[in-house]
Design goal:
The complex is a heterodimer of chains A (134) and B (309). With 134 residues, chain A is mainly alpha-helical. In chain A, 59% of the residues lie in helices and 7% in strands. Chain A has 2 domains: 64 residues, Winged helix-like DNA-binding domain superfamily/Winged helix DNA-binding domain (Arc Repressor Mutant, subunit A); 47 residues. In chain A, strands 1-3-2 form a 3-stranded antiparallel beta sheet. The longest helix of chain A is centred in the last third of the chain and has 22 residues. Chain B is α/β, with parallel strands linked by helices. Chain B folds into 2 domains: 213 residues, Rossmann fold, CATH 3.40.50; 84 residues, no CATH class. In chain B, strand 5 and strand 6 form a beta hairpin. In chain B, helix 4 runs antiparallel to helix 5. The chains are: A mainly alpha (134), B alpha/beta (309). At the A-B interface, helix 2, helix 3 and helix 4 of A face helix 6 and helix 7 of B.
Chain lengths: 134, 309
């Protein structure tokens, strides 16, 4: 797990870039339970950023229950948890849908066109999910 | 040795003739932080730094550095402060090693390992003459000379100026390395917002001699926000919104950037009855430019366009 990377000048603060990448890595299985993360100091020096920024990211991840610090041994991925409640999921999805619909309005699409395009996308998603089943 | 605040000023002011270079500055730098001191050219950063180090007499106001009065800094206080200036002043006929030997005589706490470590980090030959060094190499040498006495407080006046990307990265790495000792404080002025984002915990912003921001970097990023509003018709004129920095009106949309964003700001925006309202993340540079740049409304709706059917 050394392929974390950050960008300066991004709209996303650096600590958030780190938490998002770790979350993605855990969600996608690139990071498994009991995998070790670099120490705060090591990651700060690797990414050339202030250690407090890494500490802040790790604190957020620990609060979510995604990682934990084991005394004298380092920082580890804990039990993989369901990241968001259904309610929280909707709360995150809604603004994205609003943004898409807003954009579609501005770009002069009709609701039918959007529905059709979205239907196609969802079809691909269902197909992909089906294929994955062993 | 253990004051929680390493730099503190009250009403610090400096005039050059009738013009104020620094006006009524109240600055607080906590121990152990990396503090970025920002502002446009000529905003008073160097004047402030020179006053803090006792190199320039304040017109009025007071300041303390490591607990000492800046008007009467004793040598033992200076020995605990490392200062790197914009222009790297060195004796051109000395070699890199000689510079170190020479400088070490002035400091009882000189750490030769740090000096050679920095020299190596910047790939400098100890036998090279100062006059043969590139700008980046000189910066590395000066940094080594400044860090070797293990200062409690490091003051860097625009250290990144004129450095190539490799030397620049070495500089930032050295700054990160210094944070290994949690009681060491770094105070640096800069125009490089990418550096600020990487290394700073706190920022202060001077704007035409007046301090406009002094807070944790994260607080600044959270308080300057951008919101996009969409309207079914032409957007309404921009009303008085508390903290409004900039507003961009265009067909069907209004984009605003506000400082000190809070529930009152949000209520004022909602009162415009937009069809859509969503936050648009802002990077540090854009936030900084909005904060310091020209304020007001920029309308991209031409009057002719509005009149057309």
């Amino acid at each position: 797990m050394t392929n974390l990377s950050i960008n300066t000048g991004s709209n996303t603060p650096i600590y958030k870039q780190i938490t998002e990448q770790v979350r993605m890595a855990v969600a996608s299985g690139r990071l498994a339970v009991d995998d070790q993360l670099p120490s705060i100091r090591a990651l700060a020096e690797q990414l050339v950023i202030n250690p407090n920024t890494v500490a802040r990211a790790y604190a957020d991840l620990a609060r979510e229950g995604l990682i934990e610090s084991r005394t004298g041994r380092g920082v580890f991925v804990t039990r993989k948890r369901k990241m968001f409640t259904r309610e929280e999921g909707w709360r995150r999805l809604e603004p994205l849908m609003n943004a898409m619909i807003g954009e579609a309005m501005v770009l002069d699409f009709t609701p039918q066109e959007v529905e059709e395009a979205l239907g196609k996308k969802l079809g691909q998603w269902k197909g992909a999910k089906g294929d994955k089943k062993p | 040795m253990s004051e929680p605040t390493v730099i503190q000023t009250r009403g610090l002011t400096r005039y050059y003739g009738a013009r104020s270079a620094v006006y009524d500055l109240n600055l607080e730098v906590p121990r152990g932080c990396v503090f970025a001191f920002l502002g446009r050219n000529g905003s008073g950063k160097t004047t402030t730094i020179r006053m803090l180090l006792g190199l320039l007499e304040p017109t009025r106001g007071e300041g303390r550095i490591l607990g000492y009065d800046i008007r009467v800094l004793p040598p033992e206080a200076r020995a605990r402060i490392g200062y790197l200036t914009e222009d790297h002043q060195l004796y051109s006929w000395m070699s890199v090693r000689e510079c170190g030997d020479f400088q070490s005589r002035f400091y009882p706490r000189w750490n030769g390992k740090i000096f050679s470590g920095v020299i190596e980090h910047f790939s400098l030959k100890p036998t090279a003459r100062v006059k043969e060094l590139s700008r980046g190499e000189r910066a590395g040498l000066c940094l080594g000379l400044t860090l070797a006495p293990e200062p409690e407080l490091l003051v860097l006046d625009d250290p990144a100026i004129g450095l190539d990307p490799v030397a620049h990265r070495s500089l930032i790495e050295s700054m990160i390395y210094l944070t290994r000792r949690s009681d060491r404080t770094i105070f640096f002025s800069s125009h490089q917002l990418a550096d600020v984002e990487r290394v700073a915990d706190y920022i202060a912003v001077l704007d035409r001699s007046v301090l406009r921001v002094c807070c944790p970097l994260e607080t600044f990023r959270n308080s300057v926000r951008q919101v996009r509003l969409q309207f079914s018709g032409t957007p309404p004129p921009v009303p008085k919104i508390p903290g409004l920095l900039q507003a961009f009106r265009s067909e069907g949309g209004l984009r605003v950037i506000c400082a000190h964003y809070n529930s009152a700001t949000e209520a004022a925006l909602r009162a415009l009855n937009p069809a859509q309202m969503e936050p648009v993340p802002l990077n540090l540079e854009d936030a900084f430019i909005s904060y310091l740049g020209e304020r007001g409304e920029k309308s991209f709706i031409l009057p002719e366009t509005e009149a057309q059917p």
